[in-house]
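Quick one: structure tokens for this chain, please?
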Amino acid sequence: MRGSHRIAGALSLAALAPLGCGSNGENGGNVFVVDGGSSDVTFAGTVDSNLGDVSLVTPVFGVDGGGTQDAAPINPDAQGVFAISPSGLQTITVMAGQNTPTVSFAATYSGLPVDAAWTVDRGDLGTVGTAPSPTVALAPSGSTGGLVTVTAGFNGKLASAQVFIKLTANQNGPNASDPGEQAQIATSVAQLTQGGGVGGVGGDGLGVAVTDGPTLAALGTPTGSGSAQGLTFLYPYDGTVWPRGMLAPLLMWQWTLGDADAIQVSLATTSGSFSWTGTFGRPAVLTAGQTFVRHPIPQDIWDMATNTAGGPTPSGMPDSLTVTLTVAKSVAVDGGTAAETGFGPITETWPVAPSGLPGIIYYNSYGTQLAQNSTGAVGGNGMFGAAVLSIHVGDTAPQLVAGTNGGAAQCRACHSVAAGGSRLVVQHGDNNYDTSSAYTLTPTGSVETVLANDATFSGVYPDGSLTLTEPGKILPLPSDATLPTVNGLSAFATDVGTPMFSPDGTTVAFNPMAGSGVTKPAQQIWVMAYVSTTTTFSGPTLVVDDTGKPAQTRPGWPAFFPDGKSLAFHHQSVAGVDGNTSGALWTRKGAKAQIAWTSASDSTHVTPLNELNGMNAAGTVYLPQLAQPSSLQCTADNSQVGNINPAHDDDVDLNYEPTVNPEASGGYVWIVFTSRRLYGNEATIPPFCSDPRGVDLVENITTKKLWVAAVDLGAQPGTDASHPAFYLPGQELLAGNSRGFWVLEPCHQDGQSCKSGDQCCNGYCEPEGDGGALICANTPPNNACSAVANKCITAAACCDTTNLCVNGFCTISKPPQGPQ
């Protein structure tokens, strides 16, 4: 018997059918050609047309083109069994950027090779051939590690095997062939503070390669403990939850020895699916008198690490990502000659969400250089701007949305945005901010309409069709020429304070300042049901009650979670200068607040989000402190009064104005908030020095910035389900930034390109044709189930049965619980 014995393609993907060569009179069954080689192989048997199974009886082999030869019957126990081999877990180690080594698999039916169709569950990890074949080789992508499942299909039967890819990399200095890393190299001092700073996060950029032998040896075998020199991370924080798709963070550290000659940074997942070590000397832009105390993670490495971490592993538990830092410096040991010594390592561990962050953040910038419409700035040319800017996750700098160059009439500030991303309402800087405009937002730009009524700090309906003002008026958008009658609200509250609709538009939360139904004006948050078709409010429910506490203790700026069942809010403890009499919810003038949350249906579960604010479960503040910042003084103006609280010794109480992404992602709810905390050693001036008329914000980086934190999806108020926050990359570094509204992108029409269904007006993002580019559509493929981030009415519509349907989108039900 010669030649190969593979079952031909006629048997592979459809039900088997007899060839037109008659029947084998000897066995009485149908005859199938199995090989077209010099030794044709036939099988006598019958076909199950439903299952596509061959009932094999006796193989009959043509020998040298003539005659027949009976072979031994196939083992009956092996009949009808489809399998691939190797079947056990295979593990390979892959260098980043390489597509080898490959892993070969073979498909057999009843022990003999068959032409199977092959797929992988994660194309970002590796690929296999698309043509039916008895064998296939999995080629790793070289950009992502983790667990990939290879599946073969044959006549309705499936068999799978798994490959664990350990992605590894190392480098000394920047990668000259990677554009992302080249963009992280600072070439001038001016570049350090342009837009969002180097890499969108600030700092001094990537350092140079280390060629000195003693320095490399010191980093490889550190002998200094690090703890004796107070070597600690300033940023990021241990336990921070990172989403995918973010710009790489800026590592910042402090120690008593101050400067460093070189560093070594390692990233590794707990399962071993990814590992990287990078060695860097001082960034070239640093002068001799400046200290080397911060360094970014290379962007391509960060993408590999986060795309790997958070995924499935052989143990069944997702990965966390561990960062390790070792610092080298020439020091004298025991009074001897100075020698290069390594100190550390110090380590943090970060969970990674298995998805990115959807939507856009629109925020107020007071001091932006993108629109100069105000005078009196201490630094620069004496001009600064007040405007609304936007950031897509992944942007290295913001975009100007509302406000232009010119006088105060071009100033745009104090904004609100529809959760669906279609409209923004903002105030003009002239006329005491009593003039408002509505901006219609589209994927390609915006159109401004001046409103007839004041809409200061109003709450915009999720679809952008209307906004609820503080006096309780409903203004249709974009034009408010005719106002509808509002039912059920004025009898309860005549000043609704800071209103916010739930993402589905069925409820509204507010902090009433006046009204006959309000038991304690300014110190409560109430929730009411709302029916848009009749503009009717009903059923006021008290959800936060500060009655009996000092007058300056009050809640405000409520923001619903995506499911509408909970809300975050700004919980003020100190009103600041003039705040006691004005009743304002300040974020300036020395005001103090934390972010808390509560149920949307009662007031018994009010809970501070301590991890977000900067305090761990043991009640210890983990935020870095700076008791003696600098001698920098803020001059008196209408925003600052003297140098209020010049030290960063209470940053845990400097968190304000939360809003919540209306879409849950990766098992988390995501909150963006204003904070005056230290941004490591990059932004360190006194916390309330943020007005460009009171401090030079061209030479100094204010700490008034936007931060983002994760909260476990499905958690209930009454517990702290938050995690340490991270600095929002891409925001303008030399400006005071606040009141970030997180909303969905302005939606794309059917046929336009997309990445996920939440970008599409009709909720579905699907391939065009057979495997084409992703475009928006009004139905899922073949009216099938919905993928994550695609539209749903109930969880039953989601392809993954463990998904939830939250605010109309399929989403992962809970955060991955990897090793901590």
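The CA atoms of residues 75 and 232 lie 66 Å apart.
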